[in-house]
Amino acid sequence: MKKKVTFIFLVAFCIQLIVACCNCPEPTIYQYKFEYVAAFNVDNSKANPIISESPIPRKAYGIKLQIGLRQLAMRNHNKFSLLNQVCAFDCFCGPDTTITPRDTITALKITTVANFNDQYPAGSDVSGLFKLLRSDTYIAIDSVIAKPDIYFTRTDTKFLELYLLTPPDRAEKYSFKIDMVLSNGTQISASTKPIDLE
Amino acid sequence: MNKLLLAPLSLLCAWNFAFAQSEYKPIQFFYRPSIGAMFPMRSPSPQYISDNLIGNKFQKLFGQVIDVGFFYKNFGLECSIVLLPAQGSESRHSKFVNAVNLEYASEYYASVSSGAMYNDMSGSTDPQARGGIGPAYKVERNRFVFVGRVMADVVSFDTDWGTAQLKQKGTNELVTINWRRERPVIDCFTISPSFTFAYRVSRRIAIDLDVGSWLYRPDIIYVEKTTSAISGNATTKEYRSSHFMNDVSVGLGIMVVFK
User: Fold this and answer.
1) ipTM score assigned to the predicted complex
2) Which of A94, A129, B117, B243 is spaced 20 to 30 A from B172 at the CA atom?
């Protein structure tokens, strides 16, 4: 009997020795909820976009969405096991910290507060006129809903850059309201300060 | 009058010294490494941004690592391999970025995220290789050796691909421009006549000077693809260069006579 037990432990030890080639720390997993959203006017006329309250060229207007997060819980995956938790076949350790959202965004809508043009009077949904910039490519705003990894983050604040690709016909003062609906039914919203688009 | 006689006499002595009956056995087999410089008589490419992605534009110095000649009497066969180390890819990268800026800086912010990515990401050089074989003819006079040859060679050099991300001034427009070739390596058939003048300092060793010409016609096609981020439209333009090249090479080396 003793020999069998020793044999089993030896086999487990050998497997662990072979499989666990590096000693990676156990990852800490945080969970968060969306706390608030803030919207800023962005001037994209220069090399890099800047938050601005000065008049912005119509063709270079954008909105920077700041999504604030609040940590809800911390989970630690320390479980007893004969085998190392990180059964890595190479020596690349994953991130020490993983942050996942509790809720996902199920709707994202941008409405114009002022008359945008004849087609879009005040209060119209102008989400289709904006696009999200991601890795030097403009993607549809609906992608935020389809791909939650866009706003999955490892920091406590996430920024999304939305750019107006169809400028208004007239140079006037404009303001936009952003509404986000979360999977738990919560609705959070923000508005940009009225800005002159020249 | 004496001085007038002395001059032709000296020339006659020098002539006799140079072309007198050889005190060395005729060369049958030699190995001839050398180093030198290559001077392209014209640019291989169509004078555009993509020029900076062509490896051989920056390859001037060469090392003839292998050159062996076998002779029967005065006729023989010679084969050689020449390597031209390329300039560092960092330098090519900066030249590429400068060329992009020069072309687009008035309308776009090109320096923000423009760049070139190379096949060899390690940043080390990719040598250009030239190798060939051909008939040779030699004349030996005492210590002087003259070898003339016409070789059929292959010139092989790398090309890179480049990408520039451009941000239009005053708008949200982002433009991506790619420069690509279907095959990164260009191989060209080459005819290269060359001459070697050697002076034997000993029975086994001679110092030699090479002058050669490499005639080839590379067919370089770069496809420039411009994509607008706002409209999603892409346009392509082809830059083709297919003209005769003449690289004149001058080298200095050692001829090791084995037999």
Assistant:
1) 0.73
2) B117
